[in-house]
Amino acid sequence: MKKILFCTDLSENCKGVVQFISDWISGSNYIVDVAHAYDPNMVTFSSINIIKSEDIQKEMIQKMQDHLKDYLNGLPAENRGNTHLIADSSFSDALIEKAKALEVDLIITGLRQKYTLLDRFFGSTAAHMVSDSSIPLMVVPYLRNFETFDHIVFPTAIGSRDQLTEAEEDALGWIYENLKSNAQRKLHLVHIEDDKEAIELKFEHYPFSQMDFTRSYSPDVAAGIIDYLNAHDVDLLAIYRPAKNIWEKIYKSSVAKKLLFKSHLPILFL
Asked: Please, what is the Cα angle at 83 between 95 and 85, to 5 degrees?
């Protein structure tokens, strides 16, 4: 991995995400760009003249640029890239297109401490990016401190098979290649079975070292994953999005919103 794009909404949470990124990438050769998308029509004043309206808009744009520079300066000097202020009301689409244009390897965004009713009704920018981005995306919860990526949980759809799909192995390979950690790192494969009568799976094909496999029953896949996370010491939850039978159950459930918006864990979507 060479380049990361940090997408910020300029909320208070962003300072914590900058610190998370800084602590993680310190000592690496990763380059981090910082981007924000805003609605160019956000400043509309019918009661003042056009010249004053333009002055106010220029001032707001300058403040946004200053915020982006502040976030960039919060990163180690050797890891600082560029800032990007994007005038586009389709926030998630604009940020994803910028990430593609920059050919980044990872997008990072944060979650606010609280979301408005409109956010919950229409979906936050982070939620839309999770669904629409083909680039790996990491979502960092409010005030989450970076400690390590030693224990990573990877829900798998292997079901009755005795080995992972090639695509899932590729996703695991991305983790091993791009998420720096120490020699104690372990990746925990988890399969939540919603059928009590299913034959117990014996899984012995581990494509990488330092892996283990857990299979447990839960009538709700998302709830089963939450239970596992609550019962174990976990640093990161990694979800392989093309595994639709997992992802759709998680994303479309009420538990999913708790997982995405209230989880204490950073979540990596591959």
From this structure: 55
